[in-house]
Design a protein that fits this description.
The complex is a heterotrimer of chains A (about 290), B (about 300) and C (about 300). Chain A has helices at about 1-35, 55-70, 85-90, 105-110, 140-150, 175-185, 200-210, 240-245, 265-275, 275-285, and strands at about 45-50, 75-80, 95-100, 115-130, 135-140, 165-170, 195-200, 215-220, 230, 230-235, 250-260, 290. Chain A is α/β, with parallel strands linked by helices and about 290 residues long. In chain A, strands 1, 2, 3, 4, 6, 7, 8, 9, 11 and 12 form a ten-stranded mixed β-sheet that branches. A two-stranded parallel ribbon of chain A has the order 5-10. Chain A is elongated and about 65 Å long. Chain B is built from twelve helices and two strands, in the order H-H-E-E-H-H-H-H-H-H-H-H-H-H. Chain B has a single domain, classed as MetI-like fold, CATH 1.10.3720.10. A two-stranded antiparallel sheet of chain B has the order 1-2. In chain B, helix 3 packs across helix 6 (about 145-170), helix 4 (about 100-115) packs across helix 6 (about 145-170) and helix 6 (about 145-170) runs antiparallel to helix 9. Chain B has about 300 residues and is an all-alpha fold. The two termini of chain B are about 45 Å apart. In chain C, a hairpin with a 5-residue loop joins strand 1 (about 70) and strand 2. In chain C, helix 4 packs across helix 6 (about 165-190), helix 5 packs across helix 6 and helix 8 runs antiparallel to helix 11. Chain C has two domains: about 1-55; about 65-305, MetI-like fold, CATH 1.10.3720.10. Chain C is mainly alpha-helical. In chain C, about 80% of the residues lie in helices and about 0% in strands. Classes of the chains: A alpha/beta (about 290), B mainly alpha (about 300), C mainly alpha (about 300). The interface between B and C is large, with 88 and 89 residues.
């Protein structure tokens, strides 16, 4: 008994030591990076807080990493929260930059008159299924029928006789708002079926669709990978080129918001995002550049 | 000398102040959740909020019935699965287990209590959901009440086992000895004498377990599917009800709070108020029962 | 004739009793079998969950995993170093806020309130209110602490999503735990200790500070360590107050991501289940360590008070 507990304490101490080591090591490797010659001369320093849409978040994180490579003394905190939070926190000034994956509503512009909106990229919304679903394309009407809950079996859209599992985003999500606007017909159209599994982020939708047989969901283009299958809509493949050319029917803007005119590090970062280098990253990540 | 007493007195009030911090926090929690939720209570109305079964914030429809049903059902499921196990465990630890077995089971219970809820959620997502999905019922996605109930059952087990074990141990030895002296078997003594004597403590344990189940958040989001529906059986067999997706009150708050503005945000705080009141009621009931045991 | 009837009656009764006895014993055997089974199931449940997470996690846990920060946005690359550090920042911060208040409250409730006279009516009522507060607080679900922290610290006080907001909300969460364990520890200190000190002319506070608190120290530390465990494993509160950025926080007003929160994001937003398992394994190991510390402390406490 006592022996066992001693062993347990041993394990505990070991872990503690490990943790301390981690902290100790943590501070060392970052320092040399700061003094690498490539990044030395800029002299720009400060911090930027960013919050909002989980769709824009990964893109913003990449853009922050790239910006950091040039300006290592600028600390950019990118947090999620959702499009509405992005608008609200930028409008109230709780963060420096807000992110939204939809158009900023008129009501929001009325509430925060100082809000400046900057479209940094455009993004297609892909309709995705579990990779084993043998259906490769749907019409927009069929998608609408499925998500409204009127079409409940894959056999109704030339698939196998399997019930359809709908995966969707939360109320308030920019991706959901854009999807409802462009596919379901906005305010007048039907609502997304009650039986849909609802997940709180694009990533969670992708995870759920990729692990749930016979499921269908919608995702930002930036999240597409081999784990899910993107369907052709009205015969148009869900590719960046088709979205850029306007052939793909479901495309929405990705916005960043600031309160008043940007200045200092915030302006530098936003300028970087709209520069060729920044827009190259936008393209790399699977979104559509705006320049 | 006088200085010593002056210190003594000022410390006394400092300590009184810290003793009152808890109630102050409770007050602040009540104040802030109510204040933020007030717009929803006023704008939507209590009855509509509690009894409305449509939750569509985008269209300004806020009804919590589906979430209340989800919370209640998943709790029932967890209790049905967890209570027999937890009580069995409590009786085992208090009366039956030899020392060695106790030394193995008790740390296990303690550790089960300490494991973070996200770890249970992760386990549920990766192991339980695919298992449950194998049950061949059309519309069964694996995400739903059954997976959530299993996860919750394990999570409330330590709470119930610990308190119930204490209650059983608190039964005076004489009761047991008297009963055994009358020639009953040990099991008859347990069922006929010890458990009835510990009844109120055991009920309190179960009720506290209920409170814990109602309050769990993250693990629920991860396995329950979060659909806003009043769960219903998937086919003719009423038990398939538990294969249905659902959403809990806690999940409703956590999943949407970051997306919410205006009335929607207020409605989420109102959800918090509903949850708060529900859990306060349940816990006071448990406390009442525990008090009765003491006196 | 009559006699034989009596004899037969007796024998049947005996037989019946024997059957009854053996049935009773059978029932007992079955019941005890069930009880043993529950004990086994509890251990098995623990072994399955912990074993699965540890085995899966062991595959990704390398020094590199522990020492590199997460990267690649939501694709879930990189390690967990910044989340370990954020956790290590948040724990002392939360504990530092909650411990003085919690221990102070417990001292008052045990040492001062315990000896109040009838003529201190107002104070007595205050004490009752304070007790009610502690009991209520301990039942509040963590998401409500999150909501509260979001409304008060993040929004109203404008601390934003930050370590400060999270630590304040977390302190509210662990306060009742610390108060309760400290109360227990103080109650376990023998009365004679206090009487001895008071008899020597020490004031009540000197007695508490010099005699009672040191004697109760292992118990108090147990409460604090329990609090550490809760902060390490808590997600719901920090989900709505800490922001979730995986950058290293550089000030109290910066947001961050604890290990538990990182696990949630990995599991939900990315498909990096292996990394989630790795993070889970580290979390589980920390909890095992914390439990071991608590066990050794409480054993020390019992030994000491038994006169060891």
């Amino acid at each position: 008994m006592y022996q066992r507990n001693r062993a347990l304490i041993g394990v505990g101490l070991l872990i503690l030591v490990l943790m301390v080591t981690v902290v100790a090591c943590q501070s060392t490797p970052t320092k040399p990076a700061e003094t690498t010659p490539a990044s030395a001369p800029t002299g720009l320093s400060g911090s930027i807080s960013v919050a909002g849409s989980t769709t824009v978040q990964p893109l913003a994180e990449k853009l922050a990493e790239a910006f950091n490579a040039q300006h290592p003394d600028v600390q950019i905190d990118v947090q999620g929260g959702g499009s509405s939070v992005g608008v609200k926190s930028a409008g109230q000034g709780t963060v420096d930059v807000g992110m939204a994956s939809r158009e900023v509503k008129q009501s929001e512009l009325d509430e925060y008159p100082d809000l400046r909106v900057l479209t940094i990229a455009r993004d297609g919304i892909a309709i995705v299924t579990h990779p084993d679903v043998p259906v490769d394309g749907l019409t927009k009407e069929q998608v609408k029928g499925i998500f409204a809950g009127d079409v409940t079996n894959w056999s109704e859209v030339d698939g196998p006789d399997k019930p359809i599992v709908i995966v969707a985003r939360e109320e308030g999500s920019g991706t959901r708002a854009a999807f409802e606007e462009m596919v379901m017909g906005g305010e007048e159209g039907p609502a997304i079926a009650d039986t849909a599994i609802l997940q709180p982020s694009n990533g969670a939708v992708r995870t759920t669709v990729s692990t749930t047989p016979d499921s269908i969901g919608f995702l930002s283009f930036g999240y597409l990978d081999q784990s899910v299958k993107a369907l052709a809509i009205d015969g148009v493949e869900a590719t960046e080129a088709n979205a850029a050319s306007g052939a793909y029917p479901i495309v929405r803007p990705l916005n960043m918001m600031i309160k008043g005119e940007p200045s200092g590090v915030v302006k530098a970062w936003l300028d970087f995002i709209l520069s060729d280098a920044g827009q190259a990253i936008v393209r790399e990540e699977g979104y559509i550049a705006v320049k | 000398m006088r200085a010593r007493y002056a210190i003594d007195n000022s410390v006394r009030y400092l300590l009184l102040f810290s003793a009152l911090i808890s109630i102050f926090i409770v007050f602040l929690i009540g104040l802030f959740t109510l204040r933020e939720g007030w717009a929803a209570f006023r704008g939507i109305g209590l009855v509509q909020l509690l009894a409305g079964h449509v939750w569509r914030p985008g269209r300004e429809e806020f009804g919590l019935l589906a979430m209340i049903a989800g919370s209640v059902l998943v709790t029932i499921g967890a209790v049905a699965l967890g209570v027999p196990l937890a009580l069995g465990g409590a009786v085992f630890l208090a009366e039956v287990a030899p020392r060695r077995a106790r030394d193995l089971v008790r740390p296990a219970v303690e550790l089960l209590a300490g494991i973070p809820s996200v770890v249970y959620g992760l386990f549920g997502m990766v192991v339980l959901v695919p298992l449950v999905r194998r049950i061949p019922v059309p519309g069964n996605t694996g995400y739903g009440l059954l997976s959530a109930s299993i996860v919750l059952a394990v999570m409330i087990l330590p709470t119930i086992t610990n308190i119930a074990e204490d209650a059983i141990r608190a039964v005076p030895k004489e009761y047991k000895e008297g009963s055994l002296a009358l020639g009953t078997t040990y099991w008859q003594t347990i069922v006929g004498v010890i458990l009835p004597a510990a009844r109120s403590g055991i009920v309190a344990a179960i009720i506290l377990g209920l409170g814990r189940a109602l309050g769990e958040t993250m693990a629920m989001i991860m396995v329950i599917g979060n659909s806003v529906i009043i769960p219903r059986p998937l086919n003719a067999n009423p038990l398939t009800l538990f294969l249905s997706q659902a959403r809990t009150l806690t999940g409703n708050i956590a999943v949407e709070i970051s997306y919410a503005t205006g009335l929607h945000e207020s409605a989420l705080f109102a959800t918090g108020v509903v949850l708060f009141v529900l859990i306060m009621l349940i816990n006071s009931l448990a406390r009442l029962l525990m008090r009765r045991r003491v006196s | 004739m009559r006699e034989s009837r009596v004899v037969s009656l007796v024998t049947t009764r005996k037989k019946g009793r024997k059957a009854n006895v053996s049935r009773r014993h059978l029932v007992q055997k079955l019941a005890f079998g069930f009880l043993w089974l529950t004990g086994l199931v509890v251990v098995a449940a623990l072994l399955v969950v912990v074993g699965y997470v540890l085995l899966q996690g062991a595959r990704v846990i390398t020094p590199e995993f522990l020492l590199t920060p997460p990267r690649g946005g939501l694709s879930g690359e990189g390690g967990i170093s910044t989340t370990i550090v954020t956790t290590l920042y948040l724990v002392p911060l939360t504990i530092g806020i909650a411990t003085p208040l919690g221990v102070g409250a417990a001292v008052y409730l045990v040492e001062y309130a315990g000896e109040m006279q009838g003529n201190e009516g107002v104070l007595l009522r205050l004490v009752e209110v304070a007790r009610f507060g502690v009991e209520t607080l301990s039942g509040v679900p963590s998401i409500i602490f999150g909501l509260f922290g979001y409304a008060l610290f993040v929004s109203a006080l404008n601390f934003g999503f930050s370590l400060l907001s999270a630590a304040l909300a977390g302190a509210c969460l662990i306060l009742p735990t610390i108060i309760r364990t400290t109360e227990e520890a103080l109650r376990a200190v023998p009365r004679s200790y206090r009487e001895g000190s008071l008899a020597l002319g020490a004031t009540q506070w000197q007695t508490i500070w010099g005699v009672v608190l040191p004697a109760a120290l292992p118990g108090i530390i147990t409460g604090v360590v329990l609090g550490v465990g809760r902060v390490v494993s808590e997600t719901a509160v920090f989900y709505v107050t800490l922001g979730g950025s995986y950058k290293m926080p550089t000030s109290l007003l910066h947001g961050g991501r604890t290990m538990a929160l990182h696990l949630y994001y990995l599991a939900m937003d990315t498909r990096a289940f292996d990394k989630a398992m790795g993070t889970g394994a580290i979390l589980v190991l920390s909890i095992i360590a914390i439990n071991a510390i608590i066990n050794s402390l409480s054993r020390r406490l019992t030994l000491e008070l038994k006169g060891g």
